[in-house]
Please model this.
Amino acid sequence: MIEGSIVALVTPMDRDGGVDYSALSALVEWHIASGTNAIVAVGTTGESATLTVEEHCEVIRQTVGVSAGRVPVIAGTGANSTSEAIELTQAAKEVGANACLLVTPYYNKPSQRGLIAHHTRIAEAVAIPQILYNVPGRTACDMLPDTIVALAGVPNIIGVKEATGNLERGREVLARCPAGFAVYSGDDATALELILMGAKGNISVTANVVPAVMAQVCRLGLQAAVSSGHERERLVAEARALNDSVAALHKDLFLESNPVPVKWALARMGRMRDTLRLPLVELDSRFHYTLRTTMQKCGVL
Model:
């Protein structure tokens, strides 16, 4: 099972908007050196919505190649077309991804029965571990706990990224899903608390900027979740203190739509250019002081 801090990796781009594969390789190496436990390639943070199919597959291929088995690579292969999601998932399998992350179909707003049919079809078509991804704030489609429980019994579906930020929702999913089905947080602000309830890790935006800190927060949280008594209290206190030290990043990396702020932050750190694909544009100047100040307070600058 994939556990711990799982970075939802940005896709670096050059001055002209093409994928910067050199910067991508450097980011992968930095994350491995910093203790990141796994990498999501071409998720929401990786601007999957505006990459071509060829770019999408090549980013996954290169991430797998640079990782070279040192950490698992989870490929973002969701789409609002079931056939396209199958194509992307098959391509990810062929280049060696360890698992795939499949967002709920966006814009067309399927019913819960439609979600079950969509994810079941993909799981039956491609024999690779698949993680459901529920982020209704972006997709206008909420995968309800009943649906997650139903899909948890489908072969090849091994977990869910629960990104609502609703801890009661997370608690229900954890309580109702079978043993061996992994629940991951997709909300940095509440991730530690969900891990303490039994989630297996955090698919994180903040980890793009402070990978070592987020790896340690997740490690302490996972240790605390299986500890008791004074040892659990010690681990929880240490994890919460460390998480609090970067809590402002959890908030301010969403001053505008992700990944606009995180790319701005990484550019200030010298890790890549601050280039996005339209319709996303550079972080509004009115937010520069706020994010720069937060980065300084968190020890990033």
About this structure: DSSP finds 13 helices and eight strands in the chain.
